[in-house]
Amino acid sequence: MKYSEFLKTTSPYNYAIEKPFMIAEAGVNHEGDMELAKRLIHEAQEAGADAIKFQTYKADTIASKDSPSYWDLNQESTTSQHALFQKYDKFWKSEYEKLKEECDKHGIEFMSTPFDTSSATFLNDLMSVFKISSSDITNKPFVEFMARFNKPIILSTGASELYEIQEAVGWIKPYDVDVTLLHCVLNYPTPDDQANLGMISGLKHHFPDLLIGYSDHTLPKEMDTLISATLLGAKVIEKHFTHDKSLPGNDHYHAMNKEDLKHFYGKLENQLTLLGDNEVRRLPSEKLAVENARRSLVATQTIKKGDIVTVKHLTWKRPAHGISPKFIDQIIGKEALQDIQEDQVLKWNYFKFD
């Protein structure tokens, strides 16, 4: 399902827990290799992702030469952002056009996060939705630049205060486009005790008219973080995606692979089976229990034909094959039309009604 179609069928006012729109965040885990990028597309599609997302930037326009690292140096030893981005900024317009074609051929939606106006401009011809990185949530001119394309926007909220999220949403609002907010923690990787998934509920409270999702940087392990996010109501989930989690550097070490994603869907299917739906009703499987575990009015003693029933004649016992105790006031004061034995379940036709 394309994101535009997803938006037509999903509402922030629908509180049912459902399978989320899944974005496999390939980022630059292709490391500048077109065949590897295509492999990531194939594996994401095979695992069931709805979209695969790349990142489009040039080192010289995203970071100054003086741009210190903010990631785990034990996993990625590059101490300069500019130096790291130089390793992975080889793809540009023609390469992304080819990746878009590959995505279309394999039935998975192409996305890429732009980090400058040039990439946003040519990506506009390739995408039906724009993703804005947490790092640009305070970048008013760039947020407004992308909003002018009049396409839905997915905005990550990592490292943001509430007022900053409100400001960014306010900048987009005049353009009347759909906005989805993704809870995110900008810590690579994010320890489980810092995932703060409760913020999903917080965003739903503060932005009731917007779809809320989750962009994850925890280690995949058993995919429980994504399961919990879904159960909290995340409608969109984004997680880094790789073909090999053991590779050093960049975003491989906290990414999921195709087996992790398949595992997530298997666990989620079980959870959704347990949840059912949110309609308050009796289930068909409970019919036998209703008939036998609920109570009926029962005679505490023999009631003779012609007797007027009083409260001392009545108690309530299983099964529910007779008159429900909720109708006790309608039975008291009525005349018995036949003899009724002690411990007999009472029926409506035993009594005279005017």
TrEMBL record:
<dbReference type="InterPro" id="IPR013132">
    <property type="entry name" value="PseI/NeuA/B-like_N"/>
</dbReference>
<protein>
    <submittedName>
        <fullName>N-acetylneuraminate synthase family protein</fullName>
    </submittedName>
</protein>
<dbReference type="GO" id="GO:0016051">
    <property type="term" value="P:carbohydrate biosynthetic process"/>
</dbReference>
<dbReference type="InterPro" id="IPR051690">
    <property type="entry name" value="PseI-like"/>
</dbReference>
<dbReference type="Pfam" id="PF03102">
    <property type="entry name" value="NeuB"/>
</dbReference>
<dbReference type="InterPro" id="IPR036732">
    <property type="entry name" value="AFP_Neu5c_C_sf"/>
</dbReference>
<dbReference type="InterPro" id="IPR013974">
    <property type="entry name" value="SAF"/>
</dbReference>
<dbReference type="GO" id="GO:0047444">
    <property type="term" value="F:N-acylneuraminate-9-phosphate synthase activity"/>
</dbReference>
<dbReference type="Pfam" id="PF08666">
    <property type="entry name" value="SAF"/>
</dbReference>
<feature type="domain" description="AFP-like">
    <location>
        <begin position="296"/>
        <end position="354"/>
    </location>
</feature>
<dbReference type="InterPro" id="IPR057736">
    <property type="entry name" value="SAF_PseI/NeuA/NeuB"/>
</dbReference>
<dbReference type="InterPro" id="IPR006190">
    <property type="entry name" value="SAF_AFP_Neu5Ac"/>
</dbReference>
<dbReference type="InterPro" id="IPR013785">
    <property type="entry name" value="Aldolase_TIM"/>
</dbReference>
